[in-house]
Amino acid sequence: MSRGLRIAALAAASLFGVVVLVFALAWALMPRDWIERQALHQASQMKGVAVQWKRITPAFDGLAIGIKLEGLSVRIPATGEVKTDARTNAIFVRMKLIPLLFRRVEVSSAKIDGAWVALYDRGPEPAPASGAPSAHGFAVLVPRLDFHDVNVRTRDTLGSGMELKGLDGHVELAGSLEAPAAIRVSARAESLYWKPSLQASNVPLPSPLDLNASLESKGNAEVLQITKGSVGLGALTSELVGSVRFPQKDKGGGGPELDLRITGKPQKVDSGERAWKALASLPAKWNGTVSWNIRAKGSAPEVVTDGTLTVSGLSVSAKDNSFLVNQVRADWSTRADRTFVANAAGGGSGVTLSFHAGGSLAPGGVTNGVLVVRAPASRLNGLLPNTPTWRSGNLECRASFELKPPAKPAVRWTIRGTGIEGTMQGLAHPVRGLEFDVEGSEAEATVRSLKTGIGSTTVQVTGTLVRGKPLNTGTFRIALDRLIAEEWAPPKGSKAPEKVAAPPPTALPIPLGAFTGVVEVGEARSGGMRVTNISAPVRFDGADLVASPIKGTIGSGGVEGSLTIKSLFGKPSYVLHLDVKRAPVEQVAAGTIPFSSALTGFLTGVVDLSGQGLPSALPNETMQGLLKGTVEDGKLKLSPTVIGVARSLGLPERTEMPVADETHTVRILGSKLVIDQARGDLGGDKAEMNGSVGLDHMLDLNLLLRLAPSRIKGSTVLSQLAQYARDADGRLPVMVKITGLDRAPKISFNVNKALQVATKQLGHQVMTDLVKNLARRPDSLRKVDSTLAADSARNQPKSPADSTAKDPLKKATDALKQIFRK
């Protein structure tokens, strides 16, 4: 190693040794007991203040020697209602090294790590009694104070105030606190909140909040000029200029006198920025330019302010809706008595707004104001999730308010709409000519009038909704001149409304809760059903809807019943009961079930249906039901099934087939209509039926016809069979099996019923003769059938060994089956 390097190393080692020696001496000579005694003495001298700490110990912080104060709490006043409540996690007080060598304590800085400070405004303080001793403060001066993770909360006498969280920074002070020669501040709060009242929740404000300022004396010792100052709120920055005057206490001076100005040059604001996240949750996006000029002047706390805020080029876009508000300008002023006046106005793209407010900012002061907004209805499109889309019309909203803490805000509002047209989710047809006039407050809302057209329906609504707990309650009258169910159903094949991530608004002008009312419908149509003069009281408890009793007229008959819809706005399911009196059966079927009726006439009976979703005649696998009743003056439609049965029996085809004394019990099982029992008179014939009909048009029916004597005249096979198979009333029983598609049914016959009757009346020999005669005669259904003749010839008894000859009943059965099978 060279001589120079050895000298440098030796010097460095010597210097290090001196530093270590100085630190060691300072640490050893630190008057620990004296410091703690002085701290206790200072705390005891403070009148009206309670100061406590858990422990005080010497400590190192980096290369600094000092005192660590843990668990410090300060309460002002010591007893009674607290005004200042401060609690810290740890405070490190740094000492100057050189004075410690001479056992003197001089503080160079302090550092706070974790603190919670609450400041309460308890109103005007009473004047101190004459001769009362003044409160003493700390006599220790701190040139620099660093702080980390400090939370500050302010509250007035009614519980409102501000809150800063995550405050970091430092303050440098030259001179005394009462008469500083210079001040430098650098602070940043990560979050900023406003609490409107004691009961209200914290409202997040744009953040973070930044403050950087340097103040120095320029000739006048009492006045500090701001040489450098800036304020940041989120992405917005302001320039801070002016001065602060500290009057001398010995000359009767009061608090600091401010003469400050905060100016913000035009700068962009955007809903995508972090500072505006509370508003950016809406589907709409917006951006614009904002500028401001604010002045604060006067002695604290009687500081007066005035200011102007201008927003220009505010562009709003939401889906296909976009518009531009050219400018909004707001100005305000406050006075020494804490009263204020504020005004705002602006507009663009058809939107106009005006605002006026005035009152007192003092705790318990009264403030009154009014806001008026007018806009085309289309400006609302897309601004809120899952809302209608308007094409035309205009809206006017007027809100007046009174703030008188601690009472809740009193708000009265009116919303009017004229000439509004557009589309609404869940409706197949657009809304036209919507006009409404609704007014309300925090306690209730009144629909003075609401009228609109949807398809061929005109709707009118009046009523009142009252806020309550746990649900709001209302009473409404809803009148519809005409209701066609298909017009109110969602369009077939339409897509579900687009889901929006943002939650729906939690406070609508007319929130939906529990309500009662009366619905009146002049005419309602569903499928082929037409009901007139409908009236029904309705009840909604917040989840389930009940309409009972429902009354209406169908043709010359009537209907009464009830409807219950569970979980109307969740996963709805319904239970429908109808008592029908002489109503057209085909209309009732067409409007309530997904199966058409082959029978016309007048129905009297009961319809009970249930299923998932809302009541509808559309197919629904979950539908369950029971239809029970009678039909008078009925007629059977000439469907392919009816025509097929008539032709198979050789019966004449008529243009209509009358039905009398019809009774039925039918069940709905999802995709099937199950006929447990249906019977009636078809002209002079009698019929009984059971089986099922599917939504896929597949038939599985069993029909028992008891043909009248008039049907079996002549020389037909039916007349021949009737000679031996008449029942007690002289009718011929015929069992018909109907299967296949209803458009092309398969018809087959079962002669067992006829044979049972014939067997009771005739012996085996008579049946054998019948078989012989049938073998010789042409079939009336087929005219001449050589196959049947050959079969009949083969069936003649030839020898005792022929087992068929020994059983003429079986032979007759086979012959009849051959006839009816054709």
Describe this structure in words.
The chain is 15% helix and 52% strand. It contains 12 helices and 40 strands. The protein has a 40-stranded mixed β-sheet that branches. Strand 36 (672-682) and strand 37 form a beta hairpin. The chain is elongated and about 140 Å long.
Condensed summary:
The protein has 822 residues and is α+β, with helices and mostly antiparallel strands. The chain has 12 helices and 40 strands.
Proportion of strand residues: over 45%
Total beta strands: 40
- Quaternary class: single chain
User: Given the structure, what is the number of helices?
Assistant: 12
Globular, elongated, flat, extended or rod-shaped: what is the shape?
elongated
- Work out the helicity level: 10-25%
Give the overall average pLDDT: 79
Main beta sheet:
40 strands, mixed
Global structural class: alpha+beta
Low-confidence stretches: 13-29, 135-139, 493-510, 762-766, 774-806
